[in-house]
Amino acid sequence: MSSPDYLSPFAEANRAICEGADERKVLNLVTRLVTETLKIKGCFIKIKSPEGEHVERQTQALDFGRSSIRVKFSQDKQLELVSSFGLSEDFIYSELSESPESMFSRIPEDTFVIRDIRKMEKNSDYKAMTVEGIGSVLLFPIEVYQENISVVALFDDKVGELTRKDVKFARAITSRAVVSFILRRSMYHLLERERQFLLSFQEISSAINSTLNIKIVMQLAVNKITTVLGARGTQIRLLDAKTQQLQLAASYGLSKEFLKIGPIKEKRGVDQEMIEKIIVIHDVKTDPRIEFRAEIIKENIRKILTIPLIVRKIIIGELTIFTGGDQSFGKEEIRFANAVAQQCAFAIDNSRMYQRVKYEFQQLLVDFGYNGSST
Questions:
Q1: Going from the N-terminus, what domains does the chain have, and what CATH number goes with each?
Q2: Residues 351-368: what's their mean pLDDT?
Q3: pTM to 2 decimal places
Q4: Calpha distance 29→22 (Å, rounded)
Q5: In this structure, what is the dihedral angle of CA atoms 317, 321, 322, 326, given to the nearest 10 degrees?
Q6: How far apart are the C-alpha atoms of 157 and 166, rounded to whole Å?
Q7: Rounded CA gap, 190 and 39, in Å?
Q8: How big is the CA angle at 192 (ends 190 and 198), to the nearest 5 degrees?
Q9: Between residues 144 and 1, which one has the greater pLDDT?
Q10: Can you tell me the mean pLDDT for 105-120?
């Protein structure tokens, strides 16, 4: 019996990727090539949804009759079906396949094979696979950026006959397609992110140029930052010249109870170099700089970014962004927030200067006996 031709399908898939074919078409091509090359019943590829909320990994015991094999799965809120071939819609879109109890809704940590599904009668997936006419199944994860991001499932209507070369081929060709899909999706996400940053920055700049009402500018800034970054909330506090205390000036997304607690970090001292630094708190539960820890945790906040508002090397306040969940502050997010913060700082300074000049002008008119009435 001659061995399958692994090279031709791999070359065909690689050519489609290099020619810039739509990533969904590439994935559909790959599942078809894997199915036809290995002469199996079908194949599907699922990828972790970008919005998937990570859950702690769990160990599930799969029952195989007399023996029990323990297999680790990475459990996530949602796996997105991105391609399938040879499988019925009743099977791939069944309620069971979307259930947390199904092994097809999670990512195994290692290659996992069931050569004869009759040995797993007590497993929750058994009935669905039997109805589909499946005799054996093989699953393996695909790693991208040092994280298992996808699961590939191969199904056969016979008792498992796949060789190591078959599995090696399937892993290589699907990994190539999945990595291409993830990189393309990351690129689209990055470009859209940059576009949102630019549009928001332009909107805030336009507001600054069109009004001297600093309250409008600050409120727009905290609204936009919170929305664009998907943050829990944002606030601006300004330094009171008399008391040297930070007073709340604008906020968005935060509860009234939380806003009453004041600045959320410990005092940073009088060292100007230390004050001017951007502060990133990655975990409010463990960072020693945090005050009001219980109130912050109650607000469902996990990370905090604080940016000083500086005008002519003088601190006039600070902008603070709060996030929850797995959101993080990368270089792009910090750069965007810092740009908005400095725009706000200049706007605040210009507004104060205008108000000061306006007051002095009015006083000058009073000194000259002008009361605003016509003579």
A1: 7-186 (3.30.450.40), 211-367 (3.30.450.40)
A2: 68
A3: 0.57
A4: 11
A5: -150
A6: 16
A7: 39
A8: 100
A9: 144
A10: 84
